[in-house]
C-alpha cells in the first residue's frame, strides 16, 4: 500500500513543484522557454498574477460558523470545535492550497491532551497522496510523508480501521514503534479519517485542477515582454553611441591615458587625439517603449478575462474610484466563483465535523441531522450599501428580525452574543428603570409629576 502511494506522490511531485513556483512568483524564465544569457539575468521580470489571483479568491472564502440546521444556531459543541481547532484561519489555508494544487486535505485524529477535543489539521497537498475506491466513491487509503530536520523520512499511513506511523530505513518503510507505543492506532472507524477537497472537479475524475492553469500561459508571455522591456529601458537610458575613423586606443581621459572599454561606454565625456576631420562621434536615437506598454496592457486584459478579476487588479487605475454598486457588479464573476467553491468546501467540512463527532463521542452523527457551514459574504464589503439595504428591509413591515439583521451584516456568533449581553445590561440599567417608573407614575413620583417631566422632556 505504501509503495503504491509513494509512487503516486513522486508522480505528482514535479507538477506540484511547478505550481508552487508560479504561486510564489519564483519561476525562472528558462522554465518558460526563454533562454536569458547570464549577463542579462538581472533584467528578468515576472508579474506574479497567479499568486495574486489565488490569494484574492482565498481571502474571500472566510468561514463564519459551523452549525446544525433546525437547531439553535449557537450550537456550543460545534462552536467549541470551530474555535479549539482554529478553523477560522485553517479553512483559509485549506481553500488556498486547493486553489494552487487542485486538491487539499483535512485529517481528524485523537487529542492526547484532551480526549473531548479531537484534532482537526489541514495538510499540504505536497505531502499527501491518496488512493480512491472508485466503486464505493470514497478514500481507500492516505499517506502523509515529510522529512524531519535531521533528514529522516517519516510518514503516517491512514487506513479505514487503523493509522500506522512509519519511518523510512535502508530496507524500506518500517513501523515506527517507540517503547510501549507500537506505532498503531486501532480506531475501527470503517473510513479513512481524512477528507479530500478538490478544485474544478469533473465527473468521473478524482483529481482537481489548479485555479492558476488558465493564467500561467498568459503570465509566461507577459514575463517575456517585461524582460525585453527591462533590457530596452537600459538601452533607452544609455542610447548606443557610434564612432568612426578611430580605434579603442584613441579614447583617453583628461590626463591623456587610455580609457577601459566599459568606462568609455558609460562615461559622459569622451576625448580623442584624432582631429575632427579624421573622426566622427555620434549617438543613435532613443528607443520608444510604448509598444511594450500596449503589449503588457493586452496581456493584462486577457488575464482579466480568464480570471474574472476586474481590470484594476492588473494596474489599470482611474482618477475616480468606482461607486459601491459598480464594485459589486464588477466583481460578480469572482464572487460567484467563491460562492460555488464554498458550497463544495462546506460539504467536505461537514464530513470533517462528522469525523470529529465520531472521535469525540464514539458514535456517528444521527442520519438526517446534518452539519452545515455559514460563510461570510465574499463580495467586497460596502458598509453604506449594506446598512441602507438592511434599513429598507426593516422599514414599514419589517422583513428581518434584529438577529437576522446581524446575520446580514456578517457578524459571527461571538459578536452576536456580545451584543445580546449589551442589550441585557441596558435593559437592566437602574436609571432607565427609575425613569420608566416616573413615566408610569410609579414609586418615583405621582402621575402629574411624571406627566410634567414627560412634557418637559
Secondary-structure topology with pairs:
Elements: H1 2-24, H2 49-60, E1 63-67, H3 76-84, H4 87-101, E2 103-109, E3 119-123, E4 128-133, E5 138-147, E6 153-158, E7 162-169, E8 172-175, E9 184-186, E10 194-198, H5 213-237, E11 241-244, H6 261-266, E12 280-283, H7 290-307, H8 324-330, H9 332-361, E13 372-375, H10 383-394, H11 402-408, H12 413-427, H13 430-440, H14 447-456
Antiparallel strand pairs: 1-13, 2-3, 2-10, 4-5, 5-6, 6-7, 7-8, 7-9, 11-12
Helix pairs in contact: 2-4, 5-7, 13-14
What do you see in this structure?
- Strands 4, 5, 6, 7, 8 and 9 form a six-stranded antiparallel sheet that branches.
- α2 runs antiparallel to α4 (87-101), α5 (213-237) packs antiparallel against α7 and α13 (430-440) crosses α14 (447-456).
- β5 and β6 form a beta hairpin.
- The longest helix has 30 residues, at 332-361.
- The chain is 44% helix and 16% strand.
- It has a domain at 241-283.
- The protein has 457 residues and is an alpha+beta fold.
